[in-house]
Structures are given as C-alpha cells and as structure tokens.
Amino acid sequence: MSAVHADEDCDRPDDVSPRLVARMLDGDLTWEEWRQLLKLPRKDPDRVKKYLDALQVRVGWSERILMRISEHLFIVQSPAGRSVKCDCGQVFGDYRVNWKLAALVYIRDTAPSITEVYRCKDFAPEPGWSEIREYYCPGCATQLSVEVVPPGYPPIFEFLPDLDTFYRDWLDEPLPDAAPAWYADHTCRITASWRD
Questions:
Q1: Which residues pair with 91 in a beta bridge?
Q2: What are the domain boundaries of the chain?
Q3: d(Cα 66, Cα 96) in Å, to the nearest integer?
C-alpha cells in the first residue's frame, strides 16, 4: 500500500488526512508521495478547509485565515474586517490596499548594492534603469517579497482575490460579511492622501 494511502488518518483510499497536509506544508513528502497525490482519482471536497486548518494551527493568533497570499502573509478575518497579516502577527491593514505600503523597504539602486545579490554583472539590473526593492515585515524582519522595477514605478499589487466569489461559488460557504465592496483596489485612496 502506498505511503499516501497508508496514512492512518485517511478514511478512504483517496482521502488526504490533516496530518498529510501538515507534512506537505513542512516539505516533508517524498517524490513518490507527491506523485501519488497528483494521481488521486478525485480531490477531497474539503481540501481547502484542511489546508487552511493546517495553516491556522501554525500561527500564534486566533483571527480566521481566509486565504494564504504568500509564504508568510495571509488574508484574515479580524474584528476590523479583512486584513493582511504576517505569520508573526504583524498587521498590514485592509487587504484591498497593497500591503507593501506598510512594509519596510530596502532599495538596491547602485552597482555595489545590486552586485551583492547578482553575482554575474551581465545579468544584473542596470542602475538608473532598474532598482531592486526588497520588502520586509516590520514585526519580524522576514523578507516578504522582491521586485525589480524602473525607478519611480509604484509598488506592484500582486494579488487581490475575490474572496466572496471564491467562498460562495467554489467552497459553497459564503462569508458572513460578503459584499461587492470587498472586491475593489483601495490602494489609490491611500496614495492620493499622501499628496495633501
């Protein structure tokens, strides 16, 4: 019997246990186990719930994780609404606003600073034409994202999910605070206020 199917927490031969999901998050599966998971005849209908539950157990706070947006960032349901939160507990604010505006930023825009991360000068961004922006969590100093952009280019808003549609249409579990206003980019409201 395969390692995936032999997992003692499985109820059915094609069921994926919470323990197996935790091992996936730890990167602790063999290639054979990954291959078997990819070949399952059908996906568990509660696979997203199992994944979110496994993530929730790993963080030290109680706000419900609605979606993972990167290795360390989550959209959570908090008393103040839906917000972006780092696994360390740092809150970046409303998920409809680019979280990078609340991050610490280190900009590499000189040849010496760029060659610290690009060892081959032939492939390195050219100072004056490009800069490397490294975004860090103010709470734990974890690097959260890197982007290479022209100088003056606004921070890239990488991901604005339509959570209401996802939960309603895909998970059949509508969110209690569902409203069309949740799916809108509010970043410009913040940046427009900086001109004043």
A1: 85
A2: 1-58, 100-149
A3: 14
